[in-house]
């Protein structure tokens, strides 16, 4: 089988790349393959679907803010129901950490990020279920928990239905004449010499070599350009080529709660138009809570970093002990409404963590483009990254992000990398 | 067992770090452990032991140039016989690639790198065995081999005996009262909470966590600071912590030749004081040839990158087909004296490749310092890296490299990284 462009991975990054490639190359035959049975069924489906433009790195801000505008355009102008819910992002912080972030806030405000700062008293009034002052709670002090002094609310933030988003990209791509094949696993990339000599053992080290497609579970697929958008699985395809995916996969567990005791968190006035708790990051715990309005449930993700292992797993499993022994004892100190509440569902996904600079990679190799290392932010930067992929394929120096915002393609490359480090890290 | 500082890895990077740590902290108990039976027996022993100050990145130049000066001091002033042999490095290039490097040469000359440029005719005269003009050789053209138009000779370059270097560091370290334990494999790092509560399941996600030592094949070793200098093996220790070693291991095969037909390469006048071929990089082949004066042999390393797999191997094996099928057909076009010459010895080592910027990493985590990702340049930057490790341990912003050259410690870190990208890449 032969196509002009083969995209490996039908997650949001792969589908966004495929859509923009097909849009810009209507006559080219663009094929997306995925090992799973439908669009966005891998880690896209396991993500919380949060979006935010709250980044202090101009690189991150441009990628995210333009993608959010595109989501709004898809839903508002083009009629795709992405279930965008602008509930805001709320970071709860102790005074110490808050002070260290002053420079980041200033930078963000200068770029146009809308932030609102809430004091402890205001937080306590708006979120009656939240315990801000842990002073005097000996157990909390023993646990090293810090009181909540400040809340930082990101306004242009909320949630998107990741399944709807993946299906939207797939549908737009198919309408343009694109092609998808599910249940088709890429087993390996095919590397061939530029000039084949027909001698066994090619390619030799002195030959120019190109990726010319992939070996798949349904046979060989040749392509002029192969786009690797396989997320956490990318290393399985790229390691054999000696091409560094510049990320390490890390498990992230999601817990779901649906319990009448949590109803107070579904009725929080003054922080968003929906009158619910924003997507809220708890102080120092590396966890966040996301209300899901359609289901009346809460999702909780734990993204603890130092101490949680890297490594690709075929079928990552959630550990309920992570909630009961780890998260719960701290969580109930801040939100006593969680007392005795247990998750009704849980699953585990994998994020592709770029520890260097946490910013995604879009990089070429002969015959190939790699997009990934999005560090858990792939969905919320998906549209911009798809446009950068298409611009790189076209040989352009600048990609035009949605809203006519230019972006230097080489900045997300490897040897040409020039990104602004992210300083808003919690 | 308990020590103040535990260094994991008795390669040159680990021993240099240990020596500088002990030198600066004479009262601290510093212990080096290694899975093998002596100093520098891992990939240090498998390296070619080349040194060069030819780098266009100021970061690389400082690390390498100061390390070379230290080697000269060790041998010249302190009487350690490192078998330093200043044979120079010679890069053979086609005109196209040479032109692209103009900016890099200029930068290097400005920093003080001594370079000599040789034209094709001069190369042919000085190295009679070298075929520079491949024009008219149909087979060579079919193979895509480029003629040799230019030679770039780095003067402050040569070779060091890696075994002698490792033993020198070990001996200086032991003289200061340092301690080494061989045949002691680190099985894993120990992560404990800052404030132990004595509850099963610690450390919990809400606890500050520190590395407090390592589980080894000889039991637990606790330490205030653990230095991970395990080279290509570092990921085995760091992955479980979710700390990215920022490198991927890649096999590098070394072939050794000892043959009367090569004697012309041992008699090359005008390029160095030893009257031998410099350590010479062949054009476009990703191989280099190093004369070994003590043994009258030639070493040849193949560092082909795109197409050669990443991945740690317990016992990497050399493939003789890499020479016979891959290197040989191209090599004899440039150096016909290799005709029918076969390697008398071969082995495989592993390099820790940092694909991101190719510059080493010295980065802290709680209770820990990681030094690595040296991309095949660990030995030639070893002394500077050891000093950076010791400065980081001391909490200093600047390390003083040998020759009173200041170096900002955070520049080699991860989130604080600020290195000048290397533009001299062949």
Report on this structure.
Two copies of one chain form a homodimer. By secondary structure, chain A is α+β, with helices and mostly antiparallel strands. Chain A has two domains: 2-79 and 162-247 and 356-412, FAD/NAD(P)-binding domain (3-Layer(bba) Sandwich), CATH 3.50.50; 89-155 and 249-353, D-Amino Acid Oxidase, subunit A, domain 2 (D-Amino Acid Oxidase, Chain A, domain 2), CATH 3.30.9. Helix content of chain A is 26%, strand content 27%. In chain A, strands 1, 2, 8, 9, 10, 11, 17 and 18 form an eight-stranded mixed β-sheet that branches. In chain A, helix 1 (12-24) links the parallel strand 1 (2-8) and strand 2 (30-33). The longest helix of chain A has 19 residues, at 58-76. Chain A is elongated. At the A-B interface, helix 10 of A face helix 10 of B.
Q: Mean pLDDT across all residues of chain A, rounded?
A: 95
Distance between the termini of chain A: 47 Å
CATH topology of the largest domain in chain A, which one? Answer: FAD/NAD(P)-binding domain
Give the oligomeric state of the chains in this entry, treating copies of one chain as homo and distinct chains as hetero.
Answer: homodimer
CATH-scheme architecture of the largest domain in chain A? 3-Layer(bba) Sandwich
What does the largest sheet of chain A look like?
Answer: 8 strands, mixed
CATH superfamily of the largest domain in chain A: FAD/NAD(P)-binding domain
- Classified by CATH, the class of the largest domain in chain A is Alpha Beta
